[in-house]
Amino acid sequence: MFDDDKEPHPLAGRAADAVIVLAALAPAFIDQATTDTSSGAWLALSLYALVTAGALAVRRRLPLTAFATTLLALGTAQVVCAAAETKLSPLTVLPLAFALYATGAHTPLRRSLAALTGGAALVVIGVGVNHATAANDWRGGSDVLAVLSPLPAAWGLGVAARGRRDSLATAERRADDAQREQRLRAERAAAAERTRIARDMHDVVAHSLTLLVVHAETMRARSAELPPWAREGVDAMAAAGRQATGEMRELLGVLRGTTGEAAPRTPAPQLVDLPRLVADAEQAGTPVRLAIDPEATALPRPVQLAAYRLVQECLANARRHAPGAEMTLRVRTTPDETRVEADCGPPPREHRPAPGAGVGLAGLRERFTALGGDLTAGHAPDGRFRVTAAVPTPARTGGDHLAAG
Questions:
Q1: Cα R_g (the chain), whole angstroms
Q2: CA–CA separation, 376 vs 384, rounded Å?
Q3: Treating both helix axes as pointing N-terminal to C-terminal, what angle do 228-256 and 151-201 enclose, rounded to 10 degrees?
Q4: What does the pLDDT look like over 106-136, one tens digit per residue?
Q5: What does the pLDDT look like over 28-38, one tens digit per residue?
Q6: Pairing of strands 385-392, 327-333
Q7: How many domains does the chain have?
Q8: Distance between CA atoms of 3 and 104, rounded to whole angstroms?
Q9: Positive or negative, the Cα torsion across 114, 117, 119, 125?
Q10: Between the CA of residue 140 and those of 7, 9, 126, 135, 322, what are the distances in Å?
Q11: Which residue among 202, 225, 256 closes a domain?
Q12: Band of the pLDDT at 398, cuts 50, 70, 90?
């Protein structure tokens, strides 16, 4: 190989250029010592080397220019030296081989073939000028043909290298197209699945929530016939149903990809909203002890939202699996981590736990894992159920950028 197939790094490219220039010109200087040691021959070789060194340095970017410059320099040097009856080393054709390879490797086939044909014509013209200007003993003939005949092989190697490079580029483009098509199919399949899930949630869950709110509002309309404690329970049930319905609509918008058309009208819940959530749980019959570090309210919104959802899920599970059991909730933060702990007392002996889907805590675990933390949950020997989640505490100066998540 006379040249590399791909454009190298600038520093590596300059080093490669220096090596190629040295490999192309050094043999001629070495052989010149046994060919002709006259000052005229060394001067002609030095000027030729200076011109061809510059031409070879730009052979990738300007291959045709490099080839034409090298060929003209070689022809001029040989004709002038023959007229002056001095002789240059036959190895001066090596730079022309490098230039021919670059022409085949970095030029379209038709243009490089035209350049090869034009170069052959220039050689014929140069031989004619040589015959017209030099003495009989210094006229080129079959010896010129013998020296130059192997050079088209360098051009053929360049053309083969260009074809290989084009084939690799085509294969890479096809692979990229295949990967892009695969990603598009996966995205379309995911979008179809989200649409199906959204449709099922709308048909089942949203419909049931709407009926719940309607029944609660009907009972509120007849609140005069209810005892005071029942009125408060009905109000809490109606408020919880409306909140759940609103959050369900937002979730359906996310699943259907229409969040831009139906953006949430209220901010996401934060830790400052936990007392209201606890008050609703206490009205529903779950005694709760809540402790929140003041520094926790300054945490980034994704962390606060994850903590709020964890408390919300634990309170819902407590009402379902251990009605009346006391809940202890703690949100503690240190410079290193923020911990959310939920401790639910054992269920009453006569209570039969309601079956659950088991996806609530799994989804919360994924939420905390996405924030760089973890979540553990399980039963204690005394029958209590404990949930502990921890997430690294972001720096106060850089945490707000997480809010966009």
A1: 42
A2: 14
A3: 160
A4: 999 899 889 888 888 888 888 888 888 878 7
A5: 999 888 888 99
A6: unpaired
A7: 3
A8: 11
A9: negative
A10: 38, 42, 9, 10, 108
A11: 256
A12: very low
Contact 118, 54 (CB under 8 A): no
> Which amino acid, 80?
V
Enumerate the β-bridge partners of residue 329. Answer: 290, 342
> Do 108 and 229 belong together in one domain?
no
Identify whether 168 is part of a domain. Answer: no
Phi, psi angle pair for 392, to nearest 5°:
-60, 135
Give the pLDDT confidence score for residue 266 in this predicted structure: 57
Q: Which of 90, 2, 100 is nearest to 45 (CA)?
A: 90
Domain boundary among 256, 281, 313: 256
Cα dihedral 159→161→163→166 (10° resolution): -130
In this structure, the dihedral spanned by the alpha carbons of residues 36, 39, 42 and 45, taken in order and rounded to 10 degrees, is -100
Q: Which amino acid is at 330?
A: R
pTM score, two decimals?
Answer: 0.48
Cβ partners under 8 Å of residue 144, min gap 6: 123, 127
How much helix, strand and coil, in percent to the nearest 5, is found in the chain? Answer: 70, 10, 25
Q: Running DSSP on this structure, what letter comes out for residue 339? A: E
What residue has token string 């996966």?
Answer: 186
Which residue is it, tokens 């379309």? 188
Q: What is the pLDDT confidence band of residue 403, given thresholds at 50, 70 and 90? A: very low
Separation of alpha carbons 46 and 107, rounded Å:
29
Residues 112 and 226 reside in one and the same domain: no
Q: What is the DSSP string of 340-376?
A: EEEEEPPPPTT--PPP--S-HHHHHHHHHHHTT-EEE
Q: Round to whole Å and give the CA distance between 55 and 65.
A: 7
**Residue 169 is inside which H or E element, if any?**
helix 151-201
Helical residues (DSSP H) of 36-141, grouped into ranges: 39-57, 63-83, 94-106, 109-133
Count Cβ atoms below 10 Å from residue 194 Cβ, excluding itself: 15
Angle of helix 360-370 relative to helix 301-321, nearest 10 degrees? 160
**Type of residue numbered 192:** A
**207-216, pLDDT tens digit by residue?**
566 667 667 7
Asked if 332 and 308 count as a contact pair (C-beta separation under 8 A), the reply is no
Within-domain flag for 177 = no
Domain span at residue 299 reads 271-404
